[in-house]
Structures are given as structure tokens and as C-alpha cells.
Amino acid sequence: xxxxxxxxxxxxxxxxxxxxxxxxxxxxxxxxxxxxxxxxxxxxxxxxxxxxxxxxxxxxxxxxxxxxxxxxxxxxxxxxxxxxxxxxxxxxxxxxxxxxxxxxxxxxxxxxxxxxxxxxxxxxxxxxxxxxxxxxxxxxxxx
Length: 143
Known about the structure:
The chain is an alpha+beta fold. The protein contains three helices and eight strands, in the order βααβββββββα.
């Protein structure tokens, strides 16, 4: 198993960050990485997630929501073709620091047969996508 993890400090409340993160309809307007999410953020629900890491073509996944803790955590588990080939558990976490500051953590744990073959691209392009998305969430939540 391999993990990508990025974080950013945001001068905002957990509620405001959460509202930006959960407004799926606005993603095409601002999100440089996850270009759309269709579906309801409820545990066990299926989403349709379109991502486009920098320098890559768009990809569509149909993950299942695994985590939903309002103003704290949201996550899903997606697979390429079938479980065990290439699986990704994507999680957003908001940690409150106090004084109207939080840390947004975006991480994904990858497992499956194809991970070693795809790791270099994940560690560069996907990591860059996480960081770009985090920066845009910061901009929106701090306004």
C-alpha cells in the first residue's frame, strides 16, 4: 500500500471549508483536480467522480462513500475495473486549530496490483492535483 498526503493551513472555520468541499455543483467552476462529482455524499452511496491531474487526461471513477462526518471527514473508496487491481481510498479531513484556523488534509491510500506501475505518476501528477485543489479551497474559504 502507498499513500499520498497533502495538507494546507486555512484561516477559516471548519464549517466554511466543509461548505466549499461539499458544494459539488460548483466544482467545474473552480476545481483544478476533481473536475466534477455527481451524487450524494452519504455513506454507501455511489458517486461519479471525474479527475484530471495536471498534464493528464480526465478519468472517471465510481467510488462508494465510506466516510461522512460533517465539518470533519469525507471519503470514498474507488477501484479500477475490480477490487484488487487498483484501489484508492480518498479522504478529506478538517482539523480545527482554534482562532478561526484549520488544517485541511487530503490523502489517498492506494493498493492493488497496478500501484507499483503507476506510483511515479501518482506521486507527481496526482500529488500536484491535490496541492492545486487544496490551494483553491483555501482561497475560497478565506474569502
